[in-house]
Design brief:
Blueprint: E1 2-3, E2 8-9, E3 14-15, E4 20-21, E5 26-27, E6 32-33, E7 38-39, E8 44-45, E9 49-51, E10 56-57, E11 62-65, E12 78-81, E13 86-87, E14 92-94, E15 102-105, E16 110-111, E17 116-117, E18 122-123, E19 128-129, E20 134-135, E21 140-141, E22 146-147, E23 152-153, E24 158-159, E25 164-165, E26 170-171, E27 179-182, E28 187-191, H1 193-199, H2 203-218, H3 223-231, H4 236-246
Parallel strand pairs: 1-4, 2-5, 3-6, 4-7, 5-8, 6-9, 7-10, 8-11, 9-12, 10-13, 11-14, 12-15, 13-16, 14-17, 15-18, 16-19, 17-20, 18-21, 19-22, 20-23, 21-24, 22-25, 23-26, 25-27
Antiparallel strand pairs: 27-28
Length: 254
């Protein structure tokens, strides 16, 4: 463990083996920093934050800050972060707003400069938020989704697995898994074919997703009829797409 002489680390913080704390970094009480994690210069880890192993927190990032919620009253709520994440310069992640509630970041995520994750958001694994993405409270993002620079997401929206959101999009409804959503407001604009191929899906799976996308977005079928067609397809990715839609509370970007 290496702690720079100018860093301020609470004696009540728990730091694992191999942790590196850079100049002028601040680690408050009631925090836990997993092994081999690096906290770089001027980064701040606020109380009630838990980081897994091998994370890198770049200069000026603030993890676990109080929610930007006018109804928030001081309480113990938490930020829980997995392993092998990268938080670039100026990124801000807020803890939950209600007592004992939690903001959750999975593992292998890449949160780029000045991105903001608000209270009670839940991010899966391998999520990428590009520069200046802003997530409002209670947003849920499934595994391997990619949000391009400047995307703004309304509270309670959901972003599906392997979705891609185009730069500067305004998202006010759920974004379908496996689909590119783009625009102001966001609209579905085709399958995320490049992302799907990079993830290793087969040509058979891709054809099934293309058929499902056409049924949902381009066929003119009523939603329940389209979902009925999807439910008859023996393909886990298509079933995931149908389950995501049935779980939507805000509707989805068509």
């Amino acid at each position: 463990m290496t702690i720079h002489l100018s860093a301020i680390v609470s004696p009540d913080a728990r730091l694992g083996p191999g942790v590196i704390v850079g100049p002028f970094a601040v680690i408050e009480a009631d925090t836990e920093i997993g092994e081999q994690t690096e906290i770089r210069a001027h980064a701040v880890i606020k109380r009630f934050t838990t980081l897994g192993s091998n994370n890198v927190v770049h200069e000026g990032a603030v993890l676990g800050g109080e929610p930007q919620d006018i109804s928030f009253k001081p309480c113990e709520s938490r930020l829980l972060v997995g392993s092998r994440n990268v938080f670039r310069e100026g990124a801000t992640i807020n803890r939950g707003t209600a007592p004992l509630s939690t903001t959750i970041i999975g593992s292998d995520c890449f949160i780029m400069a000045n991105a903001h994750v608000a209270h009670n958001c839940v991010l899966g694994d391998r999520v990428i938020l590009a520069n200046n993405v802003a997530l409002a409270g209670y947003v849920e993002i499934e595994d391997q989704a990619f949000l391009s620079g400047g995307v703004v997401v309304h509270q309670f929206c959901r972003i599906g697995k392997l979705a891609m959101i185009g730069g500067n999009s305004k998202i006010v409804q759920d974004c379908l898994p496996f689909v590119i959503t783009d625009g102001v407001p966001g609209r579905a604009s085709g399958l995320n074919v490049v992302g799907l191929r990079r993830s290793g899906i087969t040509s058979t799976q891709l054809r099934a997703l293309k058929d499902a996308y056409r049924a949902l977005v381009r066929s003119g079928l009523a939603l329940e009829d389209a979902l009925g067609k999807l439910s008859a397809v023996d393909e886990p990715l298509v079933r995931h797409l149908a389950t995501f839609i049935r779980g939507s509370q805000r509707g989805f970007c068509r």
